[in-house]
Design brief:
Blueprint lengths: L1 E8 L3 H10 L7 E4 L7 H5 L8 E2 L7 E3 L2 H8 L14 E3 L4 E4 L4 H14 L3 E3 L4 E5 L3 E4 L4 E9 L16 H5 L9 E3 L3 E3 L11 E10 L2 E12 L3 E3 L1 H6 L8 E6 L6 H13 L14 H11 L3 H9 L1 E8 L7 E3 L19 E3 L6 E3 L4 H21 L4
Parallel strand pairs: 1-2, 1-10, 2-7, 10-19
Antiparallel strand pairs: 3-6, 4-20, 5-6, 8-9, 9-10, 11-18, 12-15, 12-17, 13-14, 13-16, 14-15, 16-17
Helix pairs in contact: 1-4, 1-10, 7-9, 8-9
Bound molecules: flavin-adenine dinucleotide.
The site of flavin-adenine dinucleotide has 39 residues, from helix 1, helix 2 and helix 10.
Amino acid sequence: MKNYDVLIVGAGAAGLAAACRLSRCEKLKIGVLEASERAGRKLAASGNGQGNLSNLDLDISHYHGGNLPLVQKIACNDPYGGLDILDCLFVSDGRGRIYPSGRQASALSEALYVTAEKQGAEILFNKRAAAVSRGFTVLCADGSRYSADCVVLCTGGKAQKQYFTDGSAYSLAVGLGHTLTPLFPSLVQLKTDKTHIKGLKGVRADCAVSAVVDGRTVKRAEGDVIFTDYGVSGNAVFGVSPAFASQTGVLSIEFLPGISADKIAATLERRAASGFFGENILAGIVHSAIARAVLRRAGSSPSAVAECLKNYTLEVTGTLGFDSAQVTRGGINAGEVSEKLESKLVKNLYFAGEILDVDGDCGGYNLHWAFESARAVAEDILAKYGGKV
Ligand SMILES: Cc1cc2nc3c(=O)[nH]c(=O)nc-3n(C[C@H](O)[C@H](O)[C@H](O)COP(=O)(O)OP(=O)(O)OC[C@H]3O[C@@H](n4cnc5c(N)ncnc54)[C@H](O)[C@@H]3O)c2cc1C
C-alpha cells in the first residue's frame, strides 16, 4: 500500500489548487486521487470556457450555506486572494466578474495540473475513492488502497454528473461521522407556470429580473432571459436562481430596463393616436412574440401594457435538476469544520470546495470559494509541517 503525507481526493479546482500549494513544500509527499481520466474538467468548462474565477464584490450576501461566518472569514477579503496560485493576468468585466486575461479556463486547469506534477505531487487518474477509514486508509473502487497522515476531501458536489460529480463522494465524509445537509440544484434554469410563457419558446430578451419570495424582492440580476417550454433560462435567470434553490416564488421580468413605464406609456399613447393598433403598437419595441404575450395579458390600455412590460410576473414552480445545475446548494455540514476547514470530528481530515455546505451566486463566487478554501487548508497543513504556502 502506497503511503503519502497528504492525500487529496478529487483533482478539480480545489484539489488542484491545494496540490499546487502543498507540493511547494519539498518534504511533503503529496498524492491526488482523481476518479476521472483528466484533472480540472469543471474548471475548464466554467464561465462558458472562459473561467469566471472570482468577483470584485465579495459581499457575504453572495454566499449561501449553514456557516456564513466561516465563509466570510475565508472568502470575503480579497477577490484575487486564492488566485495567486495561478500567477496569471486577470481582467474584470462591467459586472465585476474576474476572468483570466486569455479567457481560456482549460489552459488554467492544465497549468495547475502541470505545476503540481512538476513540484512532485503524484496525480493518479481513474482512482475513484470508495471509502476512507480513520488513520487514514483510502480504498478505491478498483480495489487499490492508499494510506496517508492527512486527507483533504475535494470531491465537489452533485451538479452535472458528466464531470464525475454525482454526489456519491459525500459518503466518504459521512462514513467518517460527518452529516450531509439537504441538497438542491442551484445556478439553474427555472420552471414556471406555463400560462404566461405560451408562444414565447425560443425568444431571447435582454432584461432585468427579480426574485420575489413571500412578497419581498430577494435578488435582482440583469442579462438575457431565454424562454423555453418548461420556463426560463439565460444569464439573468441564473443570476436570481439561488433564491429559488429551496423555495418557490415569483419571477418578475422587466423587459425594458432603463426606460420608465411613463415613457413607454406615452410612446404607446402617441402610437395609438396615430393609428397603430393590435400588436403593432409594440412593433420594434419588443419582440413580436413578447408583444402578443403582453397584450394578451394586459389588454390595450397603454399604461397597463407599460406596467406589464416593467413587471411581467411568472410563478416559479421549481428548478431543473442537478444535471442542469452549475452548483449544489448544501453539502457536508460546514459547522463541523474549524476555521481552517479541518474536521472537528476527525483530526487531519480537511475539506475544500463545493463538497461543503457553501454555494455562491453566479459571477465567479464558486470558483473563488474553491480556491480560497484550498488556500486555507494548505496554510493549516503546511503550518503543521513547518512549510510555506
Ligand atoms: C458548466 C459549469 C460552469 C461553471 N462556471 C463557473 C464559473 O464561471 N464561475 C464559478 O465560480 N463557478 C462556476 N461553476 C462552478 C464551479 O466550477 C464549481 O463550483 C467548482 O469547480 C468546484 O470546485 P471543486 O474542486 O470543489 O469541485 P470540482 O471542480 O467539481 O472537482 C471535483 C473533482 O473530484 C473528482 N471526484 C469526485 N468524486 C471522486 C471520488 N470518489 N474519488 C476521486 N475523485 C473524485 C471529480 O472527478 C472532480 O475532478 C461552473 C460549473 C459548471 C458545471
